[in-house]
Each structure stands twice: as C-alpha cells, then as structure tokens.
Amino acid sequence: MPAMLLASQRAMRATRFISGQPKFASIAKDDKSPVTAADFASQAVIAMTLQDDDAARSVAMLGEEDARALAEPANHALRESVCAAVGFALDRASVSANEVMDAIASAHCNESALGTRFFTLDPVDGTKGFLRGGQYAIALALIEDGTPTLATLACPHLPPTRLASGDSIAVDAVGTLQYAERANGAFELNLREARADAVEIRAALWKSGAPIRLAESVEAAHSAHDESARILAELGSEVRGIRLDSQSKYALVARGDADLYMRMPTRAGYTECIWDHAAGALIAQEAGARICDLNQNALDFSTGARLTNNLGVLCGDELLITRILEVLRR
First and final CA of the chain: distance in angstroms? Predict the structure, then answer.
C-alpha cells in the first residue's frame, strides 16, 4: 500500500502540472474519447513508481492508455508535455521520451499476460471532467483472484470536507486521496497537512422516506439518467442529484456525502471497464456501502478488461439498494 499511495500522490502532481498549463494537447482515441498529456503522464508516473518497489515490481498492470499514439511524429509536442509532467512529479531534472513511453507500455499489458494477480489503472478517470476543469480521478487497484484487495482513489479536485446535502462541488486546490484494503476498512488522507494523517471513512445510513442524495455522471452517454429517475421516482423520496465525472462518485458514497451511485447501461450489450470501477468499488464497500449490479450480482473482476458478467452498477446504502432492486424486479 505505501508504494500505491506514493504513486497516486505523484500522479496527482503530474496531472496538476498539466492542468496548470495555459494550453495542453489532447488527441482522440479510436473510440473517439479524448486522451490528454495528463492521462499519459499519470500512467507513466504510477508505473515508474511501482517499478521501484520490490513487492510491486513483479506485478503486471492493466492500464487504460496505450503509448503507441504518443510515439507518432505528429505528437511531438504532446510527448514533450508528458515528459515535463513526469519529471516534475518525480522531482527529476529530465526524463527521456523513451523512458516515459516504455513505462506507459509496461502498464498496458495484454490481458492474456495478467494471470490472477495484477494491478488495474485508470490514470485519469473522467478525462472530459479534466478537460473542463471539473472532477476527475486517478484509480489504482490490485486484483487478486477476481477481487480487488487494495485500492487508492486520488481525486485532485474533490474537496476533502464533507458536503452539505444538495450542494454543488467546488473545484479544490488540494484534493482528496482515499484508500482501502480488503477487510481492513477505508480511509481518507488529510493532504493539507505536511504529515498526511488518515481518518477512517464510513458510508451514510439512509432511512426510508428520506431524501436520496444521488451521485451521477455529468455525461448522459455514461449512464441513462432518465431511467435512473424513473426507478427512483417509485421509491417516493426526493432525489437530490450531485453530478460529477469519474470515480469521485464512489468517493462521495464512501465518506457519506452521497447515498447512492447508479450506473445504468445506455445501450444493449454495453459492459463496463474494470479500471472504471475496481478502486472505487473496494473503497466504498470497505466504508460500508453495498456494491452490486442490476441483477443483484457482485462485480466480477475475473473476466479481463471488462465486467462481462455484470449489468450496470449500484453502490450505496444497503436498504436503499434493496428497495431499488425490488423496483427493478417488478
């Protein structure tokens, strides 16, 4: 865990370095989603940090980003920006492009080479949030035999203090870092102090009839908002929506600032990527929240890069999740 926490804090530095530039480059991946210098720099920093740790060095990683696009001659400026951010995060005067691209590539292993124990990483979860200056997360988890056992969730713009019910979320200059170990609880570090003390976090208990604080995606393409609203309307409670990008939604549930996170499929046959859920799900679960899919099944992280055995995601108070599942069964 210490190496994962160090890697996450360094990745926060790298992404802040990029976001602090007056202009930074981004390119479109094959699926048309954006990827920025921050995505590449974060993945490189985490890979390089874990490679320096004796215990983590031998563990394969399934990271989201592929270094091949970064190697293209047309992306020279993007490479330079990534190298500068990595050097800043690692406190090194210079870092070569080859070293950075090798690190990114090492963290993008082929699924067939992973085995039963591996890291999964989303270096910037919520890239569109990052681009608009909103919420994003750096999500790192260790998977063992299909189950997340260690997780760090860095949210560089998420305020560390608890939110008042229904409040909008301001962009914070320090951010939040949560972590969890299976069967040992979930914690949040106080990054405002030189010595980052950790406090245990707990999910909120929802009472029947009480307002439902719903954390949901900003992007309608990521979750079916209308379907979520229709289901929750049947519970007869006021719904107070909190819209934000990334696994920051798991962070809100884990520390009691939201009662529920729903991920409703937007099209038939859609399956979630494991790096979009592994870290946040473990942290929220260790904080006392229930995590399951729309069919009441536990999330199965043994199927490679995608959760092919699951449909959607529910995360929140046990009673609230039970009521939602009853609605879905009807």
Answer: 43
